[in-house]
Amino acid sequence: MAHHVFITGGGTGIGLATAHALAHTGARFTLVGRDGARVQDAAEQFENAQGVSCDVADEASVTAAFTTARDRYGPIDILINNAGITPSAPLDRMDLSMWTLCLAINLTGAFLCARAAITDMYANNWGRVVNVASIAGLQGGAYISAYCASKHGMIGMTRALAKEAAKKGVTVNAICPGYVETDIVARAAENIASKTKLSEDEAKASLYAKNPMGRLITAEEVASAIAWLCTDGAAATNGAAIPMSGGEV
Question: CATH assignment of 4-178+219-239?
């Protein structure tokens, strides 16, 4: 039976690339995001998919999205926690609202979705949870203290839930990319260029300067790793935080 895959931040970037990477399996997709029109447009790229508006930081919104998902495609088999934001500011100039929002979306959102999905997986004695973390969850980074905190927390939650779920046929893993060629990175480069004398290309290059490969990671590369973690062949990989940074970490 084809798996039901629930992907947050599913309208673009890594989330959408992951759906494409899993499409050959015959999976059914619920793609969610705050931009309802975007995820609906994304869903039209697949034979069996729906786009659902959802704010992962809001418990009621998450509950409603999972209800809509199950009503159409049944229990959740695979959860990809991909939704996230990347605010930046020196700590002494960071507003509490920025800190709170980053943790709410990146970490609490992953918790709310995992909690909503895991009961389906336990009932079926099979499931996959893949959390899209970051190398910022494995090391520090200047001006991104909130983002680092959220991704360190996501990796900690990954490892804890992996222990709980291990004997129930469910694996929980994290993928930790470096800078990925997505809209988020494009906006980050624009922000750097606006505050420095760098061009946007130079600003983008500064983001991956520590990557030994000397380039951005592609969304498709990250999606390929996520897709593998969703297979039966990856059943022994549990609680992992896998770097994808060209050797930076």
Answer: 3.40.50.720
